[in-house]
Amino acid sequence: MRAAFHAEVLKITTVRAIWLGAVLATVAVPLFSLLVVGTDGLGLDDTATSGAATGTVVGLLAFGAWAGTLAAGEYAHHTMSVSLATVPRRNVLYGAKLAATSAAAAAGALVSAVAALLIVRLAASPGEHELGNPAALLALVAAVVAVSVLGASVGILTRSTTASITIVAVAVLLPKAAGGLLGGLEPWVVGASPGTVVTQVVGGAQLASDQTYPPGDLAAVVTMLAVAALAAAVGAVVLHRRDG
Q: For 169-220, what is each residue's pLDDT tens digit?
């Protein structure tokens, strides 16, 4: 497992298209935060922490698309057959891919969150916004990891870059957009969706009661990660049966 993980990390850090995609995803949130602060888009009740999270959805889409492209791209470029031949145990290969993707996404999200927080603090007028709780930005890191795992999983499932990006976009955007159609399920579905989870944890923007996860913030984070784990499990089964 360790050798396979190191090989996947090496691939991410040395193939230009892959690491460049990760860098672009990393800068998405800070740039969006800069745009919001520069156009006086923060409310009076916003803190620097909540301001740093204003680009959450953009970051989620960027990292999810990157992860989906990374996984599905191996089929498009016919390198998956080489990986399967190199690592005979499918569960080890799959675990290494998800672990490397998650580690890269987590590192990128952490850098992104810190950079966004610094940008908001430096760009806002002195004393205009309180700091808030910077540790709450770990929810952004967790959400990015969850969406990246989903992207990698559906990339394996569909073997299509377009399909994986589309599914990631639907998973990130649809719950809140279609929340009104869910009836009593709305707080359970919307409240556990990645973007809403981050909003709940960092505060700032006020969520309607029907968009807040009933059991609380921590349960929302756990549910979000559990859904990503379920997608990963489905991907593992499909890889074993289809490509085994």
A: 999 999 988 878 888 889 999 999 999 999 999 985 667 777 889 999 999 9
Is the Cβ–Cβ distance between 62 and 28 less than 8 Å? yes
d(CA 198, CA 202): 6
**Structure token digits, residue 237:** 């089964």
- Contact 55/26 with Cβ under 8 angstroms? no
Contacts of 87 (CB under 8 A, 6+ apart): 4, 93, 96
Whether the pTM exceeds 0.90: the reply is: yes
Residue 67 in tokens:
């992860």
Residues 115, 30: contact at Cβ < 8 Å? yes
pLDDT tens, position by position, 20-49: 999 999 999 999 999 988 887 787 778 889
Burial 223-244 (b: 16+ CB within 10 A, else e): bbbebbeebbeebbebbeeebe
